[in-house]
Amino acid sequence: MAATLGRNHSSVSEFILVGFSTFPQHLLPAFFLLFLLMYLFTLLGNLLIMATVWSERSLHTPMYLFLCALSTSEILYTLAITPRLLADLLSTRRTITWAACASQMFFSFTFGFTHSFLLTVMGYDRYVAICHPLRYNVLMSPRGCACLVAWSCVGGSVMGLVVTTAVFHLTFCGPNEIHHFLCHVPPLLKLACGTDVPVVAKGVGLVCIMALLGCCLLILLSYAFIVAAILRIPSAEGRHKAFSTCASHLTVVIVHYGFASVVYLKPKGPQSLEGNTLMGITYTVLTPFLSPIIFSLRNKELKTAMTKTFLRKLHLQSS
Fold first, then answer.
1. Measuring CA to CA, which residue among 297, 307, 227, 206 is closest to residue 255?
2. Closest Cα partner for 74 from 53, 55, 50, 52?
3. Are the CB atoms for 211 and 160 separated by under 8 Å?
4. One-character DSSP codes across 9-25
5. Cα separation of 24 and 22, whole Å?
6. Are 255 and 291 in contact (CB under 8 A)?
7. What stretches of 212-288 adopt beta strand conformation (E)?
8. Closest residue by Cα to residue 243 from 116, 149, 167, 129
9. What pairing do the DSSP bridges indicate for beta strands 14-17 and 177-178?
10. What's the rounded Cα separation, in Å, for the pair 151 and 267?
């Protein structure tokens, strides 16, 4: 990718990430420990979900296939951002090469948007399960589910390639200090020079916001039909059971798009570096940390399967 993007390589060969430079130095080790623990928990939580789904035959359904794909995209998303963040917290020289910066942007956008597309697919899955239960096995066949996951990955890759190519075809003539802890679009565009920077800024912003709002509207539409169908169920127990299958997904959607809106739809104006850094942390570290917790605690079937798998392994080890 670096070769493709490198045709307009500018005089800047590396950038300096200054996201944490204004924080008191004595706080950085505490930040490192906190973010390291959150990162490890994110990895272990998602790996536990994947292992549970694959080991329990009762969970071999479309909903849990999508959950495994979501966990995979979350692991890869955090892998693109958090290790670099942790290294910079303990380093006095927080530089990143031009190629590494472009790669980080590509992979973070690819897996970030793949995550959004998969959440949309999971909303569609719940819509079909509740509103068209008799046609569920036909509409959500194994081949169909695999295609939806594949198209989510393709869509994420296209978004990552479009955004990264647009930004890194600009000329960076200096300065080279990125006012963030990762290669994020707005602070990078402030370092670019040339007459086409405003056009790229508007184009990239429009593409990202349209994709996020499109996913969000499709999920809201799915849940509008779901709520209407649930309200038609005569028994309170039936309504509760139907809604409980959507609770974990809906909670993750609210967290995901809530923090995404803070990052992408915040009002323009002077922002402190500390404020931008903390807002970025909510989306890049906190959201992936909360996702496996929500799915593990809010999804009764998954929680039961996890407990059963864990107890079974303990029994095998003790015997």
1. 297
2. 50
3. no
4. --S--EEEE-TTTTS-G
5. 7
6. yes
7. none
8. 129
9. parallel
10. 33
The DSSP output letter for 132 is -
The answer to whether residues 270 and 23 touch, using CB atoms and an 8 Å cutoff, is no
* 35: CB partners within 8 A, 6+ apart: 82, 85, 86, 89, 281, 285
279 by Cβ neighbours in 10 Å (0-12 / 13-18 / 19+) ranks as middle
pLDDT tens digits along 63-104: 889 999 999 999 999 999 999 999 999 888 889 999 999 999
pTM (two decimals) = 0.88
The pair of structure tokens assigned to 287 is: 């959201």
Query: CA geometry: angle at 179 spanning 201 and 166, to 5°?
Result: 25
Q: How far apart are CA 294 and CA 252, in angstroms?
A: 7
Torsion of CA 82, 209, 70, 99, to 10 degrees: -40
Q: What is the pLDDT of residues 230-274, one digit of tens each?
A: 888 888 887 887 787 788 888 888 888 887 777 666 655 555 666
Angle value at C-alpha 96, between 45 and 183, nearest 5 degrees: 60
Q: Residues 248, 292: contact at Cβ < 8 Å?
A: no
